[in-house]
Here is the input.
Amino acid sequence: MSESSVLDEVVRLIAEVVGEDVLLGMEITPETTFSDDLGLESIEFVALADRLRERYGAQVDLVAFLGDMDIDEIMAMTVGQLVDHIQSQPAAHG
Amino acid sequence: MADVTARGLRFHVQQLGSENTGPTVVFVHGLVMDNLSSFYYTLAAPLARNGIRTILFDLRGHGLSARPETGYTPQDSALDLLAILDELGVEEPVYLLGNSYGGVVAMHAALKAAHRVAGVVLVEAACAGQSGELWVEDIVNTLSVAALGLEFDRTGEQLLKLGQRKVAKLAGNADALLNRTSLIDDLVSGALLSESDLRQVACPVLGVFGAESELAGAAKDLDRLVPGCETHVIPGLGHTVLREATGELIKRVLAWLDAVR
Here is the structure.
């Protein structure tokens, strides 16, 4: 799966979690941060992780990925870092 | 899959390590600004990696769960918790881990359904006695002042105009919970257990507190009243044990589970 399609998919799931209207007039790029740019609440990131697990399967192992960071590090993360993680899991392809 | 309907309400539930065969730990979070994410990012994943099945849920009115107008006593939340376990098909006794107010809910559940609760971990929670009374008085005052401020300053609307979506949403949720539900009244009328209630607690209890916390007296109350109790007071910490002593808490919980099972 190409990087842009994983990015598109992550953007689609973010819109599902926060609502399309919140993202109006905002372009999400790999540099966009979850907390400062998107204003995502920590509970919304939980909901996003849940949707990613449904979409890409348990193999993406977000729990292990997130388990190595504290909440501040998670929320300061960029969309690109999350996409890179998904991208790096062979099971997520296809 | 993250939504569970129990007692006619939609609850946001997350499970990490649901395939694990070890003991089941159910997490109960604190009041108003808190939700299951405080466990999701701290204890849940490390415990799941140690073979524990973890269940996290947002209390009614909190996080992504529904926000009805009434039913905010800890007794109600204890019934919510048991009904969620029913919906998930969890029949074996579980361990409850409550942070702050979540500990009060956990203790109510342990008394209400002793056969379903194998043990309780209280993190910075005062459930009864003088420490409990002081806590309820303090929290009710704090929440009442916050409620007035949110109602009259229209904080949420102002923040939204400034483009502060996240803070605006948190303020909006707090406003709705404090000003348009029975939460504050329910805390005044029925949050606390009595000292004789605590003497009836039949399951093992682990209490972890911060030495600088206003709730430090609750550790002494637990030692004095609860028969099968182990308490730890962590030097230098206040009420934020969960966030600031996550590693120590994980070690304590795992060791305690090994000892009491």
